[in-house]
C-alpha cells in the first residue's frame, strides 16, 4: 500500500488539478500542505467555480 497521497498543493493551478481529477476519475481530492491535509476539493466545486466565473450560473441563488 502506498503512503503517498494524490492531492493538490494550495498553490497548484486549478485547471491542472481539474485535469488530473478528470483523467483519473476522482470525485474529490485533499489539499496537502506540509504533508498534512488542510482541506478537500470536490469536482462539483470546480464546475461551480468555472460556470459562475463565466456567468453561466447565478451565484446568489446557489
Question: Radius of gyration in whole Å, from Cα?
Answer: 13 Å
How confident is the prediction overall: mean pLDDT? 84
User: How are the strands ordered across the major sheet?
Assistant: 1-2
Number of domain units: 1
State the secondary-structure class: alpha+beta
Tally of extended strands? 2
| Multimer state | single chain
Helix and strand string, N-terminal first? HEEH
Fraction of helical residues: 25-40%
Summed up, the helix count is 2
Shape: elongated
Primary descriptors:
62 residues, alpha+beta, two-stranded antiparallel ribbon, 2 helices, 2 strands
Description:
There is one protein chain. The chain is α+β, with helices and mostly antiparallel strands and about 60 residues long. It has one domain. It contains 2 helices and 2 strands. The chain has helices at about 15-25, 45-55; strands at about 30-35, 35-40. A two-stranded antiparallel ribbon has the order 1-2. A hairpin with a 2-residue loop joins β1 and β2. The model has no long low-confidence stretch (mean pLDDT about 85).
Outline of the structure:
This protein is α+β, with helices and mostly antiparallel strands and 62 residues long. Helix content is 34%, strand content 21%.
SSE inventory with pairings:
Elements: H1 14-23, E1 28-33, E2 36-42, H2 43-53
Antiparallel strand pairs: 1-2
Amino acid at each position: 500500500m502506498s503512503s503517498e497521497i494524490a492531492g493538490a498543493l494550495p498553490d497548484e493551478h486549478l485547471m491542472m488539478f481539474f485535469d488530473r481529477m478528470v483523467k483519473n476519475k476522482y470525485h474529490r481530492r485533499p489539499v496537502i500542505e506540509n504533508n498534512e491535509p488542510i482541506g478537500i476539493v470536490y469536482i462539483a466545486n470546480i464546475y461551480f467555480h468555472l460556470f459562475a466565473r463565466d456567468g453561466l450560473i447565478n451565484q446568489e441563488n446557489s
